[in-house]
Amino acid sequence: MAVSLPDENFTLQATGRVARRQAISRASKWVLLGASMIGVVVLFALIVDTIVVGWSRISWSFFTSYPSRFADQAGLRSSFIGSVWILSLTIVFVVPIAIATAIWVEEFAPKTRLLEFVKLNLANLAGVPSIIYGVLGLAVFVRLFGWGSSILAGSFTLFLMILPMTVIASQEAIRQVPPSLRQGSLALGATEWQTVWYHVLPGALPGIITGVILALARAAGETAALIMIGAFTFIAFDNTSIWDSFTTMPIQVYNWTVRPQEAFRQNAAAGILVLMVVVLTFNTAAAALRERFRN
Amino acid sequence: MSEAPTTTPPTEAALAHQGTATPRPAMSRKSVGASQRTAPDRFTPPEPAALEVRDLSVYYGKKMALSGVSMQIPVKKITALIGPSGCGKSTLLRSLNRMNDLIPGARITGAVDYHGHNLYGSNVDPVEVRRRIGMVFQKPNPFPKSIFENVAFGARVNGYKGDYNELVERSLRQAALWDEVKDDLKKSGLALSGGQQQRLCIARALAVSPEIILMDEPCSALDPIATLKIEELMRQLAKDYTIVIVTHNMQQAARVSDYTGFFLAGEAAYGQLIEYGPTEEIFTTPMDPRTEDYITGRFG
User: Fold this and answer.
1) Lesser CB count within 10 Å: N end or C end of chain B?
2) Measuring CA to CA, which residue among A245, A223, A233 is closest to residue A85?
3) Which residue of chain B comes nearest to A293, CA vs CA?
């Protein structure tokens, strides 16, 4: 048998069409990377700019001072406390109502056209601009119920605003619980509610918590709806009751940005930094909790 | 009347040797002898009926899945339901403890009598039904909780007031799993092997003291050794419980069951009970040619 000699021209390097296809493949990775970087770079530039402008204003007194007409004496105290009040109340309202709604829709509601209609509109509601919720809050809570521009009116407005997305996140989490768990539980003589309580809810909890925290992050940064109900005010006291008028951090930041003096711009930048840290903390907590429950 | 060879069923001690290579003990089966059957699907077991299915049809939406089944499930015996896929045997099984209720659009006509009450009667609560008629599924589905909690769950939700340690041990012993898990009852049920998971699911079902246990292809996800253990376990359990098992494995039906019902969808798209009788008769002298074709492997 003839032994074939090594062919001088034989090569395993990409040539011709293969080389062209590989070049496109390599280029595509750079294009995709570039697309991904646009958002990251812009965000990074923004953060750096904010830090450069606002860092000098970050100090303990910035947290302990009330707003002031003198920029170097103004601080976040009342708006920080207002944000804590508003968010705490919003959590209290939204968690039980959203979970209850999601459980009913996913586990108990008869599967009718009406239900489909409700589900569809839940998704639509999540996309309604926040200013609309502000108008609703103004008409219903502030005027009709006579609550004024109070913490209660503000947290109810935010509650309504984040309810749809919290419900949707909870529904999603409940759907992830495998049906075999429900069957196993029911086949042991557990009632539907016992099945939900002992198996569906614990299984869905990581997803629900994530959804709630992300929704809260949005509520924490919400400005338009609260300005609409009249929270754009000068507060130089600590909130102690749900009937107090209030302001929140994003509103305070907005307040500072519209002032003409350069010094207030610095305040605004510092306020943005604080707000960003808060929101980032929320999101990190969401990720950590999800991982922990998943273990 | 022919007497089948009877051997002693596996004892507690024998079952305790799980995992060692013990020779396979012969399955004990009380011979039911030749029966007087007038038609392939007309058969009344000599034992009292634990469940009496009367002219049961099941529909999924507009589609009929099972048509006009009548059969008596004898008490403290193992009844196997066999037949090719789509013949309605799982549908029948699921309608014996109202698990079909969970399928949207499922509807039944006819009746299933249990202690003289129709399971589909107007005042019947499915939770009461399922507490007394337990179920083991094809794929082991332990809860993502500890072994202890898996077994205790059914008792807890049913408001059991006794000693849970004792209940869990007894149930796990009955399911021939105790010796393998007694030292780590806190371990997750999902950490067990497939066969162990399935025995855990059986232990879980036993813990609520059902009268009847329905098994939907309980061994189809298991290896032969684990399958054998479950089969031994079933023979053991048949002393105290009525068992209905759906299986694709005809050898399993032949080995383990006392009575066998053969189902077929045939030309019609819906399943029917073709033949029902003592397992030996079904496998040795079937009356219907379709039964014979199926058990000899000519189709299905």
Assistant:
1) N
2) A245
3) B144
Structure letter (DSSP) for residue A9:
T
Note the ipTM here: 0.73
Report whether CATH 1.10.3720.10 matches the domain A81-248.
yes
Helices B194-206 and B224-237, packing angle to 10 deg: 20
For residues A48 and A224, the answer to whether their CB atoms sit within 8 Å is: no
Kindly provide the residue ranges of all beta strands, DSSP E only, lying in chain B, ordered along the sequence. Answer: 49-60, 63-74, 78-82, 106-114, 117-118, 133-136, 212-216, 242-246, 259-264, 272-278
B257-286 pLDDT, tens digit each:
999 999 998 777 889 999 999 999 999 999
- Give, as one character, the DSSP assignment of residue B22: P
Burial class (CB in 10 A: 0-12, 13-18, 19+), A294: exposed
For the entire predicted model, the pTM comes to 0.75
Work out the minimum CA distance from A10 to partner chain B, whole angstroms.
Answer: 51
Under a CB-based contact definition with an 8 Å cutoff, are residues A201 and A120 in contact?
A: no
Altogether, the residues listed in chain B come to a count of 300
Interface contacts A/B by beta carbons within 8 Å? 68
- The string of DSSP letters for A194-215 reads HHIIIIIHHHHHHHHHHHHHHH
pLDDT in tens, B79-117: 999 998 888 899 999 999 999 888 888 999 999 999 989
Read off φ and ψ for residue A231, nearest 5 degrees: -95, 10
Contact B228, B178 (CB under 8 A): no
Q: Where are the domains of chain A?
A: 81-248
The candidate with the shortest Cα–Cα distance to B145, out of B191, B208, B84, B206, is B191
Q: Look at residue B246 and give its three-state secondary structure.
A: strand
Q: Is B171 on the interface with A (CB under 8 A)?
A: no
> Position B10: which residue type?
P
DSSP A20-67: HHHHHHHHHHHHHHHHHHHHHHHHHHHHHHHHHHHGGG-SHHHHHPPP
**Contact, B247 vs B217, CB < 8 A?**
yes
Task: Say which residues have a Cβ less than 8 Å from residue A160's Cβ, sequence separation at least 6.
Answer: A133, A136, A137
Residues A215-259: tens digit of each pLDDT: 998 898 888 899 988 887 788 888 888 898 888 999 999 988 888
> Among residues A99, A220, A214, A101, which one has the least CA distance to residue A154?
A220
What domains, with CATH codes, occur in chain B?
5-21+37-295 (3.40.50.300)
Cβ proximity of A67 and A78 under 8 Å: yes
Helix, strand, coil percentages (3-state) for chain B, rounded to 5, are 35, 25, 45
Integer Cα distance of B90 and B136 in angstroms: 12
Tell me the three state secondary structure of residue B191: helix
Inter-chain residue contact A184 with B142, CB threshold 8 Å: yes
CA distance A207 to chain B (A): 16
Q: Which of B139, B141, B158 sits opposite A189 (nearest CB)?
A: B158
